[in-house]
Design brief:
single chain; 394 residues; alpha/beta; TIM Barrel; eight-stranded parallel barrel; 14 helices; 9 strands; globular; tRNA processing; DUS-like_FMN-bd
Length: 394
């Protein structure tokens, strides 16, 4: 992959700093297998997401296989860049460091997956299995920082926030049943020096490896870990982020109101009843409603238009496009007993949908993009909506 000199990337820590100054949480999109591709990342970025993740990429295959590099990681060379973190699955320091070196010219930072609970990943000592190998995780992030430094990238944490070559190294984790092990893990990965650290920021999914997603996140664990480490390292919450007005912890400020006139406008300040929490990461709910962080109660038709436009420029397999649209045209996920656990006390999520279940099934039968656009236009005319419109590419 040849370096593209005209690409500009913002340092993730600068985004944390901007959000803090705006008295809100940082809004991020989770790494989702198959779904966190370029077109989707561009769509959520248009609707208020500050920082996006790629799907987890296996570092070993990425290093050795040109076809894996071509298929697993795609960027845009035109228009504003959605700040992107490339997430890797790895268990060898040199593999993570080499893969990070390959993608550093094309992203804002790299992330090590220590949270994937799938059995195949854990059998390969990847994902959540690494929660039992804290020294190995430390060695991987240290080796990666050293490799990036040797390559000429800025890995000086806050000192490189404004450096055009500044890059971040981060880790996404789950928690242990015994939280003392999680504290030991984070302490080891951060390093012994209280004035510096081995990672730029940390994402915590407050469920154990065996906890199903239908079970609410462990708020006690989140409070303990953010209060213990949140003053030393920025922390993102992953899990049960279904809507800004229905977060899984008590809130004191109102959520933003969605408007179609300015999708990039940031929200009014959100609460910090967890004062050392720095940001939010959403997965399934953002897949259903890409405008979640813009304050939309459910997916608007304009987000469908944006996704179709982005998918036309950064093509995806038709089946994947259909799956995205089936998610977006269905009811939002949320804490009403049918969409998963979590949510603030008494909070509910709008369950209206752009298409009925029968209409979504009919949409899945479309055999090409032309039929798909025609189908959506017909449904919108029946609903009194305007037909498909290409969004402003700027």
């Amino acid at each position: 992959m040849a370096e593209l000199p005209n690409l500009e990337f913002v340092h993730p820590l600068k985004l944390f700093d901007i959000a803090k100054k705006e008295k809100r949480l940082l809004y991020t999109s989770a790494p989702m297998v198959r779904y966190s591709k370029l077109a989707f990342r561009q769509t959520v970025f248009e609707y208020g997401t500050d920082l996006c993740w790629t799907p987890m990429i296996l570092a070993k295959e990425f290093n050795r296989n040109r076809f894996a590099r071509d298929s697993d990681f795609t960027i845009s060379t035109a228009g504003p860049q959605a700040p992107t973190i490339v997430q890797f699955g790895a268990n060898v320091p040199q593999e993570l460091a080499r893969a990070s070196s390959l993608v550093a010219p094309f992203c804002s930072g790299v992330d090590l997956n220590c949270g994937c609970p799938q059995s195949w990943a854990c059998a390969e000592t990847l994902g959540a299995a690494l929660m039992e190998r804290r020294e190995l995780v430390r060695d991987m992030v240290v080796e990666t920082r050293e490799q990036l430094r040797r390559d000429g990238w800025g890995v000086g944490l806050e000192a490189d926030i404004d450096n055009p070559k500044g890059r971040s190294v981060s880790v996404k984790i789950r928690v242990h049943k015994d939280l003392r092990k999680t504290i030991d893990f984070i302490t080891t990965v951060l390093g012994p020096d209280a004035n510096t650290r081995n990672i730029d920021f940390l994402t915590i999914h407050p469920r154990t490896r065996s906890t199903p997603s239908s079970t609410p996140i462990n708020l006690d664990a989140l409070e303990l870990l953010t209060s213990t480490f949140g003053t030393r390292v920025p922390i993102l919450l992953s899990g049960d982020v279904f809507a800004l007005h229905a977060l899984p912890f008590p809130t004191t400020h109102s959520a933003p109101t969605f408007t179609t006139t300015n999708t990039k406008e940031k929200s009014t300040p959100l609460p910090l009843t967890l004062p050392h929490l720095s940001g939010l990461m959403s997965a399934r709910a953002l897949l259903r409603n890409p405008a979640l962080y813009a304050g939309a109660s459910s997916c608007p038709w304009s987000a469908v238009d944006t996704f179709l436009s982005r998918a036309a420029r950064a093509p995806l397999p038709l089946k994947l496009v259909l799956h995205h649209l089936s998610e977006m045209c269905g009811p939002a996920l949320g804490p009403d007993g049918s969409g998963g656990g979590g949510g603030g006390e008494g909070a509910t999520v709008d369950k209206s949908a752009l298409l009925s279940k029968k209409e979504r099934a009919a949409m899945m039968a479309c055999g090409n993009m032309i039929d798909l656009v025609d189908f959506l236009d017909e449904r919108r005319r029946e609903a009194g909506e305007h037909g498909w419109q290409q969004p402003d590419p700027g």
